[in-house]
Structures are given as structure tokens and as C-alpha cells.
Design goal:
The complex is a heterodimer of chains A (271) and B (186).
Chain A: H1 3-9, H2 15-23, H3 34-53, E1 79-81, E2 89-96, E3 106-111, H4 113-120, E4 134-135, E5 142-147, E6 152-154, E7 157-162, E8 182-188, E9 196-200, E10 207-210, E11 213-220, E12 229-236, E13 239-246, H5 250-262, E14 267-269
Chain B: H1 3-11, H2 16-37, H3 40-57, H4 66-84, H5 92-102, H6 118-130, H7 134-144, H8 150-157, H9 161-181
Classes of the chains: A alpha+beta (271), B mainly alpha (186).
Amino acid sequence: MNGKDLLRGMSFIDEKLIAEADTAAPIKVKNFFLKKYLVAAACLVFIAAIAISLNKFDIPHGFQKLPEHTYTPVQPPYEWIDPNNVALNEIKEIVEYSVYYDPDLYDIHMWNADDIIRYYGKDLTPLYIPAFLYPSRYNKSTKAVYEKNGEIVSDSVTMKFYTGYNEDGSPKLFQNSSSVKGITVQASKTGTIASYRYVLSMNKVKKTDIGGVQVLLGKKAPSANFPQMYTAEFAFCGINYNITALQMELSEVLKTVASIIWSDGNIAVTE
Amino acid sequence: MEDCEIVRMFWNRDETAIAYAESKYGTKLGVIAMRILNNREDAAECVNDTMLKAWDTIPPQKPVYLFAYMAKICRYFAFGILDRNSAQKRSAEIIELTNELSQCIPDPISEIECDIESREIGHLISTFISGLPKEKRIIFMRRYWYTDSICSISERYGISESKVKTMLFRIRKDLKDFLRKEGVVL
């Protein structure tokens, strides 16, 4: 008997064990702070339960409801961001950027939510989503591009959180404004994320430290044809993130970024 | 479509069951085969064979976990194709996994015909794994069943690569002791 026999013998393992390893949620690493926050977490659950029972949140018909904890009032916040340490870079220009993959050279496969979690090792949905933004029904799938030898060349996942959506899935214009309001989060391991490139003022590009991660924040002032926009680019745990926020407060963008880095939805920006 | 519905279609000999199963699990099965075979065409062949085998075996089988059932078939076929191919074609990952599991063999005398069939080994390993804590069980399965890389496991579960390696090392050592106690003799 050799190692290969054992590896082959694994093929006959109980299906229950195979299914368990396929669907198991990421294991939370036990940490020092767990007990400390247990009581606070219980309080939040209690508050959330009351909020749900009061049907406090008005979700438009047809939209997927986010987990209730993302709407839970943050009392008290666990993680803090000091706005004095936030560096914004002015966006000078937006350049559309797209790559065409020739079907003769590449294969395109549709990934569902399970495939995405399996590939990235976690659910990419930020734990903090600003109130009154709702996830697109297309957030749970993406098209992955493979080379003919099976190597993945494009793994970009795009998740949209906007105030509402049209029949075709595109975000609706916000109230009386001429633009949409919400956040788009893109993630990729291979780095082929962007559909747009943001040209910053190159002389003074400054990054902001959030939880030890260097985040490149961009800002575009509103104009007659374009709403106020914030962008955030950073790499965390081998995943490149690109966040675009339209008509959103900076604090909401920071909380969304921090919730990805800290894996915590309870974020506050200090006054 | 729910798994039970697809299984019901298999039982009713509705051929669209294959299309539904392939649509739902074809990519996942392809990934499993691809990791073992490192060859896209072979992996595609493996997935096709899996679909046909599922058609031939359901009924009489009525799997509770359809993906696990098909993945077992797919993995089995993949190793069959691996045998057919030359050793040079084997992926580095499979060679590494083979070397790691060689450490679990009580008396590692190579090239000696084994009395224990793969199926029996599977049952023994199932018994061993079932007794592990959930965290260890899942990490062992991700490594040696799904052939995930150490890095991938580390990222998936948010633990360091060194911790994954240490955990796997200890599990292999325990498995070796377990096999010895179970009388696995060469």
C-alpha cells in the first residue's frame, strides 16, 4: 500500500462527510475577545429581534432582504475609524476599461454563490451595508473566464447595493436625482477587477491605514453630469477589492471598507 | 432545482435529470477532476462519465447528498484516468498529496501488493474521520478529498498556513496509529 492507495481509498468515504466539507461555513477562529463581546452580541441580537418584530425596515417588494444584523443600530460600536487619519485623493478622470475574452481562446463558466465561496474561501458580501441599500439579485453569481488549460484568468465578482432596481436588474435612479445611489463592491484574486480606472492626482497619492491595510481612497466632487463619488481600492487576504460609491456619505464608505477588513459589521466613525 | 427533485427525475428515467445535474454540479465536479488530472479534456471526460454513471445507478441508488454521490463517482473516475496516464502527467499537487499520505502507512514497504481494497480503506478512513473534531475533520477532507492547497484552506478558514500544516501533520500521525490498531498489515 502506498500514499496513492490511501488517496484513492478516500474516494469511498462516507457521503455525509463529503457533503459536510463541501458546505461547511468558514470556521471562526477562536480569539481572546470572544467572551468579552458575548454579552454585547446577545444584546444586539435582542435589539435586532425587537426591530424585526416591529417590522421597522421597509423592504421594497421583490428585493432580497439583507441579514438583519446589518441594519442593527450600533450600540456600542466595536471598531472605530478616526476621520482625521483618512486621506482622500482627488479623482481627475474616469476611464472605461474592459477586456474582451475570445471564446476560441477562453472558456466562460457561470459561478453560483457556492462556487464563489469555495473559490474565495468566504462570503464576499461586506458585513456592513448602509441602511436602505439593497443587494442586487445578481450578486450571488459571476462569470469566470478560464484558459483552455483550466487556469482562471478572470474571477471578478461584482456586488451591487443600491436603493432600488429596474426590471433588468440595473440600479434605479435615486428619487429626483439624475443618478443612482449606492455602492458597488468588486473583488478579484487575479486582479482583473475594474470596469473603470480612476486617474488620481499622481503627485500626492496618499493611502489610509484601516486595520493595518493600506486603502487608496478617491473622491470626485459632484458636477452637473456626475454625482459625488467615492472609491476605495485595497488588497486583503490575497483578494483585491474595488469599491465605488455614488451619492453616499464618506463615513458609510469607510464603514463598508472596514467591515471587510475587520470582518465585523459594527463599525463607527469617531466624531 | 432541489437535489431531491433531480433524484426523482433520475428515478422517473427523465433524461433531463442529467442536464439539470450537469448544470448544477458540472463545474464543481470539473474542478475536482481538474485538480486530480491537471488536464481539461480528461476532466471533461470524467464529468461526462460521472453523469452517465449516475444515470446507470440512480435507481437503484437514491442518494441523500446528490453532489457528494456524484463527486465520489467523479473522483473515482479521475483516479482511473490518472492510472491510464503516465506518471509524468500527474499534477504536482497529487504527487505532494500522495507523499503526505504515505506518512500514514504503518509499514511503508513500497511496491507490495495490498490486501486491503480501496473500498475497505475508505470505510476505515470514514470511521477515523468521523471521530475527529469538526474543524479537523473538515480541514482533512478539504486537503485530501477536495485536494485543496494549504494556502486555499488557510484562506478559506482564516487560519495560518503553519497551523493548517501542523493540524494535518497531527491528523496523519493519528491516522497512522489508527490504521495500525485496525490491523492494516502489508
